[in-house]
Task: structure prediction
Amino acid sequence: MTRSFSKVGTKLTARSGILELMDDLGRAMTEWPDMLMLGGGNPAAVPAVQTLWRERMAELLADGPAFDRMLGNYDPPQGNPRFIKALAELLQREFDWAVAPRNIAVTNGGQSAFFFLFNLLAGEHSDGLRRKILLPLCPEYIGYADQGFAPEMFVACRPEITWLEPHIFKYRIDFPAVEAALRDGDIAAIAVSRPTNPTGNMLTDDEVRRLSALAAQHGIPLILDNAYGAPFPGVIFTDAKPFWEPHVIMTLSLSKLGLPGTRTSVVIGPPHIAEAIAAMTAIAGLANGNIGQQLVTPLIESGEILQLGPKILRPFYEEKSHAALAWVREAFADIEWAIHASEGAFFFWLCFRKLRIPTRELYERLKARKVLIVPGEYFFFGLAEDWEHSRQCLRLNFAQPEAVVREGLRIIAEEVARAS
Ligand SMILES: Cc1ncc(COP(=O)(O)O)c(C=O)c1O
Result:
């Protein structure tokens, strides 16, 4: 048998960062129980939400016909009509957004939503132009990096770095650079995660408004990835507001509400985009998994879903972030370090400017000592020029149990000292 794959096949089967990350995550959870797992993006086990989902599942089981319908039927490719109607009504009621069911499409997780969106919008068009996705703030989510069928799908801009206090910095969008990229390239859409994975940066309301205005001015969509953000799950530690306008494509996911196993996310955008996503779902997978939608529909109808962030998830993760920052200060007392301001999500983005090896190498050394992190290099795709900073950063999940985070930090400090 020949072992030749198509060009697309070869691209999608390359040893991508996201494959390595998810592989490490899966193995750490099953085959390597003694690994200190600071790598993946698994949400923490938050007791109050675990109880909520158990109760909802019990309700579904108790209602025999509803349970049978859930398991026994395909939903339309756009998603479950009752779920979609409830979500549109909630967004209209609470935020006064002009969202109707035709603006919404469900996908099997945000990762699939981005695979569809990027390949829908970027790549070669019938006018011969090769359009690209503009990432206005790099570093950006590792999971986007290898999603394009087309080569070099992304153009990314370096941020401005501002220091909030000694050791703590924040990336801000360099708007002149974004405007130049919009002028120079054939840009299909602007895309950002908010809060940003890997940094925990929460783009300010003003930054989002300016990006939206630029997108509108260029007649392209602004894609806002709210996997951790607003209106839900709401793992945000600032008072930044949810944002949507008719040319914005917003994605929401149930994963960080504690339901990654249900693989459920929602795309909210112009009707032709929602329609296109539903069409792609039909081709790629017939329909979406419907268990997640069934679990959360009553909470969307009642609006309770909007309270899970402020009442449960924000306090849980914010407290973890504060505690872990104190452990960072303690563990790194003798090395040179910096961290991005933790404004949401559950990652620390650490930067070691005196490191003499790339973090890719540091990752290997740490793995050999049973500590898993994600090396920063993977998050710097789409840049036109090399940037030393890209080899000095790493991402760490701070939402793990205290003993795991503290021991991991102690070993990281030792390895950074050895390599500085
Ligand atoms: C920024 C961001 N976007 C999208 C996703 C995809 O999540 P899911 O496919 O579980 O909805 C993730 C997962 O961690 C993420 O961090």
User: Anything to note?
Assistant: The chain has two domains: 7-49+308-418, 75-304. The longest helix spans residues 305-331. The first strand starts at residue 36 and ends at 37. The pocket of pyridoxal-5'-phosphate is lined by residues 41, 109-111, 141, 143, 193, 197, 225, 227, 253, 255, 260, 265 (CB under 6 Å).
